[in-house]
Amino acid sequence: MVSSGGQDLMSTLWAPIVVVMIVVVVAAVATYVSRRHGGTMVAVHTVEVVAGAVAALSALGLAIIAVTTFTNRQVPLADNVLSEAESLTEGNPCPGTASDAPLYCAGTVMNAPLDARLLYLTAMALLLAASFAICWAIYMAARHAVAGDPFHRNVIRAFVVAGWLALLGGIVGEALRSISMTVAVRSLPFDFADETLFYVSIPWWPCLVSLGCFAMAAIFRHGARLQAEAARLQKETEGLV
């Protein structure tokens, strides 16, 4: 997940634009190198490199979120919880003086309590783990395809693991993220802050992505079975000749 905010449109879009530019550059370099070395599977090799790069960015993102969460002691808000915080702090701008007490500023709870930060970090770890697993499965599939063994058992395992992580990590991660935001808002020193409602919604994307991963695992498993059967028949035929 990549997010940014600002007073104007360009300052808000800088993070998505940078990510897209990085992916485009990596894909262009991978395509150029593959063509230069006479590769016959340029598209597959490009997918391999891009998937590996995105997986690495997911791991880097988790490290950045961990440092930010515990160094700045903040929990960003979104959706219904953000609306609740806005209503609680109406007429109270961002404080200009340093304070160790929880405070709300620009869609973020600063100096959030430890339990809220731990919940938020756990949620982001689950969501990024799901993203990493999906990219890793795509990387493994492309890598083994380039190596001439597209139905390798490691590819099947990678898609099965990605499916379970997308399903469980996506649902639990989104739920914990919403809970962490509510816990952070309840710590604010405002009237009725401790009565902030918990909002937990189950997104559809983990179910759809996991279904796709399990389908890919079944397809590759069937391909491996056909490949093994073809190899067995070829060996029997050679024995007859």
Notes on the structure:
The protein is mainly α. It has one domain (72-240). Helices cover 71% and strands 4% of the residues. It has six helices and three strands, in the order H-H-E-H-E-E-H-H-H. A three-stranded antiparallel beta sheet has the order 1-3-2. Helix 2 runs antiparallel to helix 4, helix 3 (79-88) packs parallel to helix 5 and helix 4 runs antiparallel to helix 5. It is elongated and about 85 Å long. The termini are far apart. The model has no long low-confidence stretch (mean pLDDT 79).
Structural features:
single chain, 241 residues, 3-stranded antiparallel sheet, 6 helices, mainly alpha
Which residues form runs of ≥5 with pLDDT under 50?
A: none
Helix content: over 70%
- Strand share of the residues? under 5%
Radius of gyration: 24 Å
Termini separation comes to 59 Å
Bulk shape: elongated
Strands side by side in the biggest sheet: 1-3-2
- Summed up, the domain count is 1
Please state the oligomeric state of the protein chains shown.
single chain
Helix and strand composition category: mainly alpha
- Could you give the count of β-strands? 3
Largest sheet: 3 strands, antiparallel
* Mean pLDDT over all positions: 79
Organism: Microbacterium bovistercoris
Keywords: Membrane, Transmembrane, Transmembrane helix
Protein name: DUF2975 domain-containing protein
List the helices and strands and how they pair.
Elements: H1 9-36, H2 42-71, E1 74-76, H3 79-88, E2 103-105, E3 108-110, H4 114-146, H5 153-186, H6 205-240
Antiparallel strand pairs: 1-3, 2-3
